[in-house]
Every structure is written in structure tokens, then in C-alpha cells.
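Please, structure for the following, as C-alpha cells.
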Amino acid sequence: MDAEEEFLSNDYTGEGINVQLGYLFENNVEPAFRYTSITPEAAGLISDRDAQRMHTFGLSKYVVGHSLKVQTDLSFIDENAEFSFDQEFDMLFRFQVEMAF
């Protein structure tokens, strides 16, 4: 709730697509590519959320199947307001080690 006791929400409507492609080689290394596009529904003529496009390049190494794996990815994020020329570019790097007993 905000100062005026109105409910705030992270929920919004719109359209999105997520497409992923990967290939597991015999040496248990998997390169992957993911494309994500999110387009919020406009409220009137101006959207209160930014459209977002994300291109992600990932690499995984399965040491002991899914019980021990190392993963990393790099995302290039393009955000822009749907009805303006404001544009913002960001990068996101992630690294993960997964161990299961």
C-alpha cells in the first residue's frame, strides 16, 4: 500500500514471447540462446511500463548430470517506452553452480 492507502501491484497485462535454443554436445557442454520480448498493454496512449527485449547467450557444463553443473549467461537488455524515444540498454551476467545430494 502507498501513502494514500491505495493498493500497488506488479501485475500488468500485455504480450510476451520467450524462445530458447540449446544443444548438448557429447562432452556435456551446452551452449544456449534465448530471446525474450515483453510488450505491456498501453494505458491510454502512454504505457506506464517499458517494452523489453532481451538476447541471452548461455553456457552450461554438466559435470555429474544435473547433480553437479556450472552455468553462466550474458543478457543484453533493450528497454524503451512504447510511445517515446527514450531507450535504455543494460547487460546482465549470471553465474550459477548447482549441486544436488
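The chain has a mean pLDDT of 83. DSSP finds no helices and five strands in the chain.
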